[in-house]
Every structure is written in C-alpha cells, then in structure tokens.
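Moderator note: this is an archived Q&A kept for reference. The question asked for a predicted structure of one protein chain; the sequence and the answer are reproduced below.
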Amino acid sequence: MQGYCGAPFESLSIGIDGATFLCSCEGWMTKSAGNILDYKSFKEFYSSPTVLEIQQTILDKTYSYCNLNSCGFNGNESSRPEPVNSPDKIFLTYDRSCQLQCPSCRDELINTVTSKAYQVNKHVEKLLYDIDKDICVNVTGSGDPFASKLFRNLIYKWSENPLSSYVKLELQTNGLMLKKCWPNINPSIVDIIRISFDAATKETYSKTRFPGNFDTLLENVSYIADQRKKYNFTLMADFVIQTDNYLEMADYIKICTDFGFDQISFTVIQPWAMPQQVFKEKAVWQSDHIDYEKFITNLRNIDYNNYGLGWLVDGH
C-alpha cells in the first residue's frame, strides 16, 4: 500500500443497537469502534482507545481491521490522515425497515423498528446538535429512509427544525416513495439524493428489487429530477452488479443520462444475505463464474466516455 485510506478519519457508520464502524460500510470493517451510546460527544468517541487503535492500522498501513477485498480501496490516496474530533460524514443504519426484499440486501421483508433504534436515534440527534463544522448525514444504506417510520419522521422533523446550518442530508433510497414524501421535506437541508436502480427493464427490476414496480420508480425519478432543477441538490444513482442485470449496465447509464443524474455508481454484489452457493451464482464479476468472460466483454463494449457523468466504482 502506497497511500492511506481516509475513511476511518472521515466516515462513521452507526448501526444496529448503536454499534459503530469507521467506514462508509460496516461490512468493510471487521472490528466495531464501540457503541455510540457510551459517548457524550464525538470528541470523546474519537479519543477512545478503540478508535485510535483502528486508525493506527491505517497510519501503519497494515489495515488489520479492513476487508480490502470487498471495499475496493487500491492504495492510491496519498495524504496521511490527521487526528479528528468528529466525522465528515455519518451513515445512519440502525433501522433496516424497507418495503423491498432485494436479494443483494436481505432474504425477507423487514418493517419493524426496535426500541433500541429509537434510543440510538435520540442520542445521535444530541451529538449532532453540538457539531460545529459541515457534516453530511446519510439516511440510509440499511433500508429505505421513507419506508422506515423512524427515519421518515426524523427527516420530517429536521425539515421543520433543522439541527444547524452545518448538517445536510444524503437521502439514499429505492426512490419509490420520493414523490409522496418530498412535499414534507425542506430542500435546503438536502445535499444529495441517491437512488438505487439495479436494473434497466421491468423484467429485471422485478427480480433485483422485489416486489418493486419499475414504472413507479421511473415516475418518481422523473419527479425528483424536476425538483433537482429547482433546488440544485446532487442526484446520484446506484447499481449492484449481479448475474441478473450485468447486461443492462449500458441501458442503466442511458436512463440516468436522460434524467440528468450527476453521478452513477457500480458496486458488485456481496454475500450479505444469501447462502454461499447462491452468491457464487450471482457473482458474475468473479473470474471463476460461468459468465465471467461475457461480463468482461460487456464492460469493454460500454462507451463510458460518451456520457457526461461522474463515476464511482466500489467493491472490486
């Protein structure tokens, strides 16, 4: 490794029951940094022995608690991170509620909220009140921010009474409830809206975003794309590459271009919610997959430079 990953100094995921991870994705870290409920401030949290221990593995470039095979870090970030008292970005993932059962995420519908989640939520709000620098709060990579009653009410609350001028939201969503919920959201607190596609056709969407409706997705995307013209937030799209959808990557790019997305991302499917054998069948990006050569050929045939989009490629 030539460079340093800045994530453990910049990003903080707050997950189930308050468990924390110094990364944008808790699945990319093998060690928790502790429970957020045990700390009265971000400064106290970032001074804890566990946080400092994890950060030291970045500074000495051992990456002992990082799953580098999954996160895609290639060692190109060069500047040595400095000690911090608070994160630049927080990922709220302590409620997994969602109206979809995507195979890349879960094997059942989840729509219940634990009492512990409400406790964590209240505590996180207290910590954010004391923030004195710009910070982005992502809601949510663990489910859907609008299907979740907890997160939906949190967003509405912050819309009526913003925490501070420093706190902005990144709404990471399947997009199916955007049109319904947007009138209750204060656009001034929204920095980014990030919509999951995982398909470019109805047939594939019914598999990768079960039981979602592709026409409903496009209706909501069209609506929010018009809102973007008024309020100038960043519009992003996500696509988890798997056997069912890899041939639709180019069509997905075209859809996003036509709607005026600012940035799109590709990530590869991970074995988070499926048996190993099912994962192997879906992981078309692995070199021993039966369709790997077709996948590589498809990648090479996409004219990426023909689109005015920013790119993110994570996970491989």
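Archived answer notes: The beta strands are 11-14, 19-21, 34-35, 89-92, 135-139, 167-173, 190-196, 234-241, 263-268, 310-314.
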